[in-house]
Amino acid sequence: MATNVNHLYAARAVAGFTGGGLLRIVPLYIGEIAESNVRGKLGAYFPLGMNFGIFLMYVLGTYLDYHTISFVMVPFVLLYAALMLFLPDTPQFLIKKHRDEKALKSLKFYRNCNEKDSQNIDMIKKELESLKINVLNHHKTEVKLKDFTEKASIRGLLIGVFLMAIMPFSGNMTILSYTADIFDSSGSSLSANESSMIIGCIQFIGIYIASLFVDKFGRKILMSISCLGSGLSLLLIASYSYVTSIFEVPSSLSWIPIVSLSLTILLNSIGISSLPFMIVTELVPQKIRETSVTILMACMTLFVFTNLKVFPPLVEVIDLYGCMFIYAGFCIVGSIVTIFIMPETKGKNLFQNHES
Question: Under a CB-based contact definition with an 8 Å cutoff, are residues 269 and 202 in contact?
């Protein structure tokens, strides 16, 4: 219902507040309700859902006007809010509040427990007892500053900051925000709507691929492939853009920017765009997890803002190819950090400190 830019500022502030809350809460929520053997897959569904929304906006934006799109999305928001009312709190949260009976019911719900199967009931009760020991041990004292100075905490936070930084500085969010401009500057003949829908669809496919293989191959392998592959693809598009700024490139090579950008988005999506939220919740020690995730999400929004704000004037100074070379550098550095420093968190208990 906005009629001027101030209304948009207000709406964006509210959306940022609630959306930021979801970015913090959903990975924690999924991490707490999921069993370790499917936690990666379920964690990947979060960015998968986000990017389905992005793709849907690209499609609706092609055929509907601005205000109509907003009204179309309202029922989805209301449906989401209504459905969440039927889900119980996580067992860990209920244990912290000393609501053991509700915690047992919650665990039965999230494990799809068959009440008639006594063996199944016994396993659920044993899991609950194990959860109680771990949760109460980690929450019997308040979180203090010294908890953040322990070796596992420092390592987890530093890797977490790196993961939050590599997401925007890998070029992915810039490409999504300036899709039409980048395609045009790189020599593509596709229209703004066509290029946006192609990129949105490719990203959705990439994250879906990640959801299929993250629990099979692990987080480290997918992140390494994603960083290195994105870096090489960005080098290709940067080189092509640089050559076209100096020489007349034959029209027979016009497929290069489309393929390289599409490949960048695909490779980015299988790791960089889909896994950091999940890895952070698995990597940071349990006692400081909630506070750490809040800090890291705040860092990510700051990095995203900086990246999107700096990109347009930076293009004026060093051109598109210069920016793409920088993003490629970030990705290649990211692959080195992922391969040699970041630990594998696949299948690990959320109460482990991941020091090995």
Answer: yes
Flag whether the pTM goes above 0.85.
no
Distance CA 286, CA 64 (A): 45
3-state secondary structure the chain: CCCCHHHHHHHHHHHHHHHHHHHHHHHHHHHHHCCCCCHHHHHHHHHHHHHHHHHHHHHHHHHCCHHHHHHHHHHHHHHHHHHHCCCCCCHHHHHHCCCHHHHHHHHHHHCCCCCCCHHHHHHHHHHHHHHHHHHHHHCCCCCCHHHHCCHHHHHHHHHHHHHHHHHHHCCHHHHHHCHHHHHHHCCCCCCHHHHHHHHHHHHHHHHHHHHHHHHHHCHHHHHHHHHHHHHHHHHHHHHHHHHHHHCCCCHHHCHHHHHHHHHHHHHHHCCCCCCHHHHHHHHCCHHHHHHHHHHHHHHHHHHHHHHHHHHHHHHHHHHHHHHHHHHHHHHHHHHHHHHHCCCCCCCCCCCCCCCC
Give 205-236 pLDDT, tens digit per residue.
888 888 888 888 888 999 999 999 999 999 99
| Residue range 266-323, pLDDT digits in tens | 999 899 988 888 888 888 887 788 888 888 988 988 998 898 889 889 988 998 889 9
Q: Quick one: pLDDT at residue 180?
A: 66
Residues 130-147 have pLDDT tens digits of 888 877 776 666 778 888
